[in-house]
Each structure stands twice: as C-alpha cells, then as structure tokens.
Amino acid sequence: MDTVQAASRARPHAAAAADNLLEVEGLTTYFFVRQGIVKAVEDVSFSLKAGEKLAIVGESGCGKSMTALSILRLVPDPPGRIVAGSVRLAGQDLLKLSEAEMRKVRGNRISMIFQEPMTSLNPVISIGQQISEALMLHQNVDRATAAEKAIEMLRLVRIPEPARRAKEYPHQLSGGMRQRAMTAMALSCNPEVLLADEPTTALDVTIQAQILDLILELQERLGTAVVLITHDLGVVAETAQRVIVMYGGRKVEEASVEEIFENPQHPYTQGLLAAVPHLAAISGAQSESPRLREIPGIVPALVNLPKGCTFAPRCAFATAVCRSEYPPYEAKRPGHMAACWHSDKLDGGQHA
Fold it and tell me: Any idea of the CA torsion for 78, 80, 85, 86, to the nearest 10 degrees?
C-alpha cells in the first residue's frame, strides 16, 4: 500500500525493527474516586503498523480518549493510574520509562491532536513560539531555525500568511485555523505515531472535511501511523483501514473497515451503523425511508458496570448468559474479532 511504502522510505529503521510499530497489550487504567473505582480502560490490546490508519470508535464515555492518554502517560495521577499492561513503541515499553525519558517521547515520537485546541494551546504564547518550543526541545535546533520551521509547518497545513499568523495568539485564530495549528505542532517533529482525538468535533462540516483531508495528506507524505479517535462512522468510512469499537472501557469488536460496515459481529456496532443516515433516505430516492434507530438507554457509569456483558442492558439479543458472564473476545470470522455470545443472531450488514 502507498502509505506503508511511504512509511518504509521515511523510517526504514522502524519498519525493519518490527512488523508492528506500536503494540498495546492488556492496557488497564483505573480512577480511584470517592464513589469507587472507575474502570476507564479495561484490558485493551491492539497493534499498529507503520503508516497504518486505525480508527477507535464509540459513544462518549466508552474509554477512547482515555486509551490515548494512557498511551502517552498523561492520565492525571491522582486519582487515575495505569494499573496493568504494556505500551511498546518499536519494542520499547513506554510504561517502564522514567518521566524524564517519557518527555523525550511525547511530541517527538508520538504526538497527539487534542479535541479542543483552545484548552490545549497556551493562550498567552504565540502560535509560532509554541511550535518552536517543541522543535527546540526535541530536535536540538536553535531558536531562529525553530522559528523558520514553525512558519514552514504553518504553511504546510495551509494557513494563509504563515509568517504573520505565527506571531498571533490562539484567540486571534478561527476554530479551523486553531485546529490546523495544532496539527502543525503535532507533526512538527515528524512523529512515528499520531493520536488524533476527535480532531473535527467542534468544527462545521466543510472545515471538518478540510482538516481530515489535511491530516491524511500529511500522514501519507510523512509516513506517520495514525490512530483516529471518533464517534463519527462517516469519518471512519473515509479515513480508516482498520476499526476498533469500544464500549464500557473495553474493546468489543475489531476488523477492517469494510468488514465492520458489511458484517458487524457485535450488537453495539450494529446499533451505531443503524443510526447513520443513508443517502437514499436523505435524497428521497426511497418511497418509504426507514426510521433511524437509536440505541436505547445510555452508556453505563464506569464506576458501576453491570455484571456480565456491559452492553446487555441495552441489547435486544441479551439472554441470561449475557447478564451473568462477560463473553470471550474471539475470532468470529477471519480477521474479525468480537466479544458477543450471540454474534450468530446478527444479520450482518442489514443493521436492523
């Protein structure tokens, strides 16, 4: 594939070191609060190849963002703590590094685009200076060189008049420009892995498309592997090669993007797909458009998860075994993993 080939050219040492660039095994993150233990991330495992595009999807509160923060070791402690698992980047376990060693990895080998730029950018430091700081810290360049590279990165993300914009502060930029600046900062050190946490949530539809196209274009040019965190299945269909579906802090399904859309093997994934409007219905091509089906109920509080399958209280297929035992996470089809007792009852791509 083109992206993998680009990644191999950009980083032959990483491609040669291991087939998987990033390997997350049994990652578990808890928050110890007065009400009890919040199981934000529970035994999450996945791998990422160089140049690959992986999407993690699910409703708010499913553990998507906390998984990304755990990978970067940005979980607020206290009350949060990574209690189990490993995160290996090119074979190096990030959870075993000292904080000083981890600071050399963040923003350099792994970067993150956060959900809301206004809470992530420093309001009293200019955009150019914020990008320059990352370059001086990780690339060992002088201030003048860093300033030039910052302007070049702003030009790369198509911000007009980059030299002038570099001197401006976050509040002086539009929402789309702030997200572009965040993207420029995240990619300034040419990271091996980019974690993009809902990078288009607060933007209007046309700007969303521009930002996604920009991230994908830069990803292919730089050979960066991308983990895209989103609740928007339309974004997933456009951008991802492989999809992980999370619910209640756990992985419930994983497969290629084509397989997920055509043959969902978990009722939660099926419910998400059933809630997506279809073009024929929107255009009026169908005489009787089917009603969009919402998933009944709400995501359970992670401090008080139900016994057995966490999706059972909202699932039309739930039986007694679902309410008493958590299903094994196993292969349902070649290359298609899911945790469900009743995958055989689902109707594949019909999303009923």
Answer: -70
**Residue 150: helix, strand or coil by DSSP?**
helix
Q: Are 300 and 313 in contact (CB under 8 A)?
A: yes
Distances (CA, A) of 219 to 27, 42, 140, 175, 222: 26, 29, 23, 21, 5
* CB 199, CB 209: distance < 8 Å: no
Query: Beta strands 242-247 and 225-230: pairing type?
Result: unpaired
Report helix, strand or coil for 183: helix
- pLDDT tens, residue by residue, 24-81: 999 999 999 998 999 999 999 999 999 999 999 998 889 999 999 999 999 998 899 9
Tokens of 299: 């995501």
| Domains of the chain, first to last | 2-240 (3.40.50.300), 250-279+291-350 (no CATH)
What Å distances lie between residue 348 and 224, 273, 333, CA to CA?
33, 11, 12
Task: Find out whether 271 and 244 touch, Cβ atoms under 8 Å.
Answer: no
**From CA 153, how far away is CA 149, in angstroms rounded?**
6
Residue 118 neighbours by CB under 8 Å, 6+ apart: 170, 171, 178
Tell me the pTM: 0.85
Question: Is the separation of the CB atoms in 86 and 26 below 8 Å?
Answer: yes
